[in-house]
């Protein structure tokens, strides 16, 4: 992914930039400070497809190949197209704090048994070096029974990765599908009675 320096000139318009297929952004890091950049929309989409929004991105700027992580992605409220990015430059040996998506494995087996997984959290905040950062952190829920509760401490993580979130916080629980449907139906009736 190629980043180019964004120059603010008279008559400059971010809207024009986006219409030309570029996404504006800010690149920052300890060595470089804050740099205004732009990236081709298609190149960005390709890199996000392979690395994910929470993964490490490879990019080049001014002829130098670097790596970075997306700190923020702003999307258009209607089209959901990316309209701005914040990218942090990283070095391999640097310890960093990032959110990593939680991958719930075996959810379909719960559904086959008439149970459903209620997800409280979809990401976990971790601290680690760039070279050991996973794209996702897995948890196997396939053998979960109704009433089972999963916490951050149940996640399968490498010893080189530390969880920053409270490890006792609940991330998901297993419920009976029929019971949940009945509860939702009851809530809807109560809401209707309040509004009538």
TrEMBL record:
One of its GO terms (biological process) is translation. GO terms for molecular function: 5S rRNA binding; structural constituent of ribosome. One of its GO terms (cellular component) is cytosolic large ribosomal subunit. Gene3D superfamilies: Ribosomal protein L25, beta domain, Ribosomal Protein L25, Chain P. Residues 4-87 form the Large ribosomal subunit protein bL25 L25 domain. Residues 96-176 form the Large ribosomal subunit protein bL25 beta domain. Pfam families: Ribosomal_L25p, Ribosomal_TL5_C. Keywords: Ribonucleoprotein, Ribosomal protein, RNA-binding, rRNA-binding. Belongs to the bacterial ribosomal protein bL25 family. CTC subfamily. PANTHER family: RIBOSOMAL PROTEIN L25/GLN-TRNA SYNTHETASE, ANTI-CODON-BINDING DOMAIN-CONTAINING PROTEIN, RIBOSOMAL PROTEIN L25_GLN-TRNA SYNTHETASE, ANTI-CODON-BINDING DOMAIN-CONTAINING PROTEIN. This is one of the proteins that binds to the 5S RNA in the ribosome where it forms part of the central protuberance. Part of the 50S ribosomal subunit; part of the 5S rRNA/L5/L18/L25 subcomplex. Contacts the 5S rRNA. Binds to the 5S rRNA independently of L5 and L18. This is Large ribosomal subunit protein bL25. It comes from Clostridium vincentii.
């Amino acid at each position: 992914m190629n980043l180019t320096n964004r120059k603010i000139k008279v008559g400059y318009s971010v809207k024009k930039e986006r219409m030309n297929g570029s996404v504006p952004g800010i690149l920052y890091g300890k060595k470089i400070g804050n740099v205004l950049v732009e990236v081709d929309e298609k190149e960005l989409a390709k890199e996000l497809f392979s690395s994910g929004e929470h993964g490490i991105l490879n990019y080049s700027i001014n002829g130098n190949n670097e790596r970075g992580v997306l700190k923020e992605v702003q999307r258009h409220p209607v089209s959901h197209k990316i309209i701005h990015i914040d990218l942090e430059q990283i070095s391999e040996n640097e310890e960093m704090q990032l959110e990593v998506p939680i991958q719930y494995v075996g959810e379909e087996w719960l559904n086959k048994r008439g149970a459903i997984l209620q997800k409280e959290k979809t990401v976990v905040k971790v601290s680690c070096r760039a070279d050991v950062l996973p794209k996702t952190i897995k948890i196997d829920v396939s053998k979960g029974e109704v009433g089972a509760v999963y916490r951050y401490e149940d996640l399968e993580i490498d010893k080189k990765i530390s969880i920053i979130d409270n490890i006792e916080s609940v991330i998901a629980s297993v419920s009976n599908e029929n019971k949940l449907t009945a509860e939702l139906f009851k809530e809807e009736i109560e809401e209707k009675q309040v509004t009538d």
